[in-house]
């Protein structure tokens, strides 16, 4: 085959862990996977019932989301954040990963004179990949000591070329919180749309839940997901809300592309958004698992591991992320993510997702000899 010199996809980050799987799997009871943030807890029964009885599978669902789903989104934004978001300024998306990956392309078409996507230097890798797939410059933004974005580190030249800025609060992987008011203000000063990925907003441990929309709608878009809050990663339902012009532009583009959340998934998502009680239960689960796994790994490794400000990941400096991951696979039968998955600045770190049931975390504790 002749090499055309075109784009060659890099290895998918989590595929790089494949060599450690047989090592961890050799333990009685098998591998305990703490690498990928895949929820393990069951959705509520009413969501499953809605999924199976909606009768929405026959026709094409609306790209922006059904009336019922959009009303549920709007009601949740009001309950959770005391916001009144017009229906015209919100819409559904097929989970948020595809939204993160495709939006830079659409925004560059909207403003072809700009070619740069700004994103946190230690971050979910799809921010960078979305920029790359759009033919944009992917420019990481340095973080402060507390993990929040350092807006002062963005050069005037990069700001002038930026088609968008991604912020993620609470952060995946670090759990850090960014000042969303500062982010919105920076974007407006520089004429850069700010997209705020808030999919972990239900799991903030330091202070109340916040959204960039608290600081006005102009020039900002908040992005949310049901994957984490409602254990519905397989349903692929998310939504975005904010600036009227940007949201309407994306709604129209995505309609042409055929970005449609399946009808039964929309029906189930509306039910999930209407129920807050199951989210409170999930918050308690994740908090308990974070505290327990942090103590277990600290006692075993001697590494100081602190609670994150938000999210359901432990993020800590292990000296060498890959060395720690292999040692844990051999001695505890567990998989964690080396920090270089999230940018070169994370090479010394490790991310552990507390998405396994309590009994599986206790299994790791017993293997490591931590009572």
What report would you give on this structure?
The protein folds into 2 domains: 13-42 and 278-367, Aspartate Aminotransferase, domain 1 (Alpha-Beta Complex); 45-273, Aspartate Aminotransferase, domain 2 (3-Layer(aba) Sandwich), CATH 3.40.640. Helix content is 39%, strand content 14%. The strands form 3 sheets. A 7-stranded mixed sheet has the order 2-8-7-6-5-3-4, sandwiched between helices. It has helices at 21-25, 45-53, 67-81, 97-110, 126-133, 156-161, 180-190, 226-229, 244-257, 263-273, 277-301, 321-332, 358-367; strands at 32-33, 90-93, 116-120, 137-141, 162-168, 194-197, 220-225, 238-242, 313-317, 334-335, 337-338, 349-353. The mean pLDDT is 96. It is globular. It is an alpha/beta fold and 371 residues long.
